[in-house]
Design goal:
The structure holds two protein chains of two kinds.
Chain A (H helix, E strand, L loop, with lengths): L1 H17 L1 E7 L4 H14 L3 E8 L1 H9 L5 E4 L5 H9 L4 E15 L7 E3 H8 L17 E5 L4 H9 L11 E3 L2 H10 L3 E6 L8 E2 L1 E3 L11 H5 L6 E9 L3 H12 L1 H9 L7
Parallel strand pairs in A: 1-2, 1-3, 5-10, 6-7, 6-8
Antiparallel strand pairs in A: 3-11, 4-8, 4-9, 4-11
Chain B lengths: L1 H38 L11 E6 L9 H8 L17 E4 L3 H4 L2 H4 L6 H11 L3 E6 L9 E3 L7 H6 L3 E2 L7 E2 L2 H32 L2 H16 L2 H19 L8 H25 L3 H9 L4 H12 L1 H16 L3 H6 L17 H8 L8 H37 L1
Parallel strand pairs in B: 2-3
Antiparallel strand pairs in B: 1-3, 1-4, 5-6
Helix pairs in contact in B: 1-16, 7-10, 7-13, 8-10, 9-10, 10-13, 11-12, 13-16, 15-16
The chains are: A alpha/beta, B mainly alpha.
Amino acid sequence: MKKTILLLFVLLTANQIFAQKFKIKGSDTELPLTQNEAEEYMKRNKNANLMVTGGGSGVGLSALLNGTTDIAQASRSLRMDEKLKLKNEGKGYKEVIIAYDAIAVIVHPSNKVSQLTREQLEDIYTGKITNWKDVGGENLKIIAYSRETSSGTFEFFKEHVLNKKNFAPTTLLMPATGAIVQSVSQTRGAVGYIGLGYLEKTVKAVQVSNDKGLTFVAPSVVSAKNNSYPISRPLYYYYLTSVENTVSSYIKFVLSPAGQQIVLKSGYVPIK
Amino acid sequence: MTKARRIYEKIVTGILFSSSTITSLTVILIIVFLFREGIGLFNSTPTEKNYVIAVSRQNTIPIITSNELADIFNQDITNWKQLGGRNDSIVRLTLNDLSGIFTEEELGPDLEFFPQKLNEFVKTTPGVILYLSKEYLPKNFAGRIIPVKKITLLDFIFGKHWYPTSSPIPQFGIWPMIVGTLMVTLGAILFALPFGMATAIFMSEIAGNRLRNIMKPVVELLAGIPSVVYGFFGLVVLVPLIQSLFGLDVGETVLAGSIVLGIMALPTIVTVAEDALHATPQSLREASLALGASELQTLVRVVIPYSKSGISTAVILGTGRAIGETMAVLMVTGNSTHVNYSFLQPTRTIPATIAAELGDTSFGGVHYNALFALAIVLFLFTIIINLSVEVIKNRNQRVNQRG
C-alpha cells in the first residue's frame, strides 16, 4: 500500500516537473477568449498547465514588469512609461496581436437614429448634445450609459471616442456590460457602448463614422477585420523574450486556424 | 474536586475575557486602519506618485490647482492667458502622446534621444505643459516644475466633480455622493416607515397569535435574501415600472434605490417596532379599555406613546441598514456623479462608489486613499446613527424610571 502511494507521489511530481506550466494575466475583455483558448490547448497538450486570470490590462502589464506572469493579455498597447521601464531593466519583450475587438454603440430598438459620427458621440458623452433631435432623431432626452471607471473598455472609449475628455457627470455608470445591455433595452432615450461579443437582439447597434459623416460603417466581424469600422482595437499578448521557449507553442496555437476559430466563436474578430 | 472546578471556571472566564478583548481590538484596529489610509489623501498632491507637472521657463504661473489642470487637459482652458499667465496657447504633452509628436526614429531604437528631444521641445514651445514621471525628466531639464496644490478637506467634501481615474489629473469631490447617499436613505425610510409600522401594529395588536407566528418568520425571511437579488429585481422589475409610471427618460433613479432599500430595511423596522409594541404592559391596555376607550384609541393614545422610543430605535436601525447597503443600490440608481436633488433622477451613493472602484485601485495610490476617505465619511454617518440610538434608549430609561 505504502509503495503504491509513494509511486503515485513520484508520478505526480514527475508530471509537475515535465509539465509545461505558465501564467496568463490581464485584460478582462480578453479573459473569456483566453480561457477558451487555454482550455482547448490543454485538451490537446495533456501536460500543459495554464493559469488564466483577469484583473485588467494595467494589472497584467505591471505583473509582466515585475515578473509575476509569463504572458500579459492587454486590450491596449504598451504605454511609453511601461516601455521605458522595460528598457531601463534591460528586458526584451514580444508583442503579438491575437484578435480584434470592435466596440458597438447601441441604442434602444425604437430609436430612429441609426448613424452617428465620432464627433457626435464625443458631444453626447461629454454632455454637449443632450437631445436626440440634435442628431436627427425625435425630441427625446439622451441618456448616456457607460462602464465603470475600472473597465479597459471605458479607457479605450475615452481615449478614442472622447478624445481623452472626461465623461459628463450625468453619464450613468453601470457595473457590468450585461447591465448596459439590459438598461439600454428598456430605456427609450438610451445610448451605450459594449464589446461586439455582447451584442444582442434587444438593442440596436448604430453605424459609426470617423470621417465627419462621409461613410458610416456598422460594427461587424467583417468591418472590424478590414479596419473600416472606426471603434475597434487590437487585443495583445505581451511576453518577455526570456520565456519565449515556454510560451511559443501556445502562441502558435492561438494564431493557428483552430485557435482563430475559437476567437470567432467567442465573439471576437480573427486577425486573418 | 473544588480545585478542578475552580480551574475550569478560570479557564472559561479567561476565554470569555480574551475573546471580548480580541473583538474590541479588531474593531479599534479596523478604525485605525480606515483613518490611516484615508487621511493620506490630504497630504498628497493629486498627481500619481513620482509624477510631476512641468512648464516652460517663460511661463509665469507660480502654482496650479487640480481643477485648473483638469480644465487644461480636458481642453476647456486652451490659453495660459485664462489662468493669468502669458498669451500662449497651451500645448499638452504626456509620456503617452510622445509617439504623436516625435517619430520612433527621432527617439532612437532604445529611446536614448528622448531626454534631448524633450529639452528641445520645451525650449521651443513656451506654452507647453508636461506631465511625466520624475525618473524620465532629463538631466539639466530646460523647463520648470510647477507645484500642484494639495487636496483640502473642503475641496474633498464640497467638490462637485468625481473623476478618480482621469489622467493626468484625477478629481475627488464627493458632494454628489453625500447628497445621493442621504437622499436614497431618506427615501428608503419615508417608504419603509409607514409600511413597517402598519405591519408591526397589525402583527402586534390586531392579528391573533397564530397569524403572528406565521407572519413574523416571513418578514424576517426578507432579511435573509441576498442584496444582489434585490438589486436584480430592482433593475429588471422596478426600474422599467418607475420609468413608465412617471413617464421618465430614465428609470434608474433615487426613487428606485429608495424602494429597494426600503424593502430591505422593512424586516428590521417591523421586528424591532413589533417587539416594542408587544412589550407594552397588559395592565396599561386594560386600564385604558376600562376607562371606556376603544381599541383604536388605546392603540393611538396608550400603546404607541408607550413604545415611542422602541419605534424610534427601529427607524434608526433601519436607516443604518439602508445607508451602508451597496450592491442593490449599485444596480438601480444609475451611478451618475452629478449633483442631484430630485428623487426622479439618477444618483450615486458612497458604498456603491467604494464597491465599484476599490478593486481597480493600486495600493497606496491617491484613488485608493480617496476611497478610504469616502469610507470614513460613511463611517461617521453610521456612528451618528448609532449614537442617536443610544441617546434615545437612555432617555427612555430615565422616563420609565420616573414613571
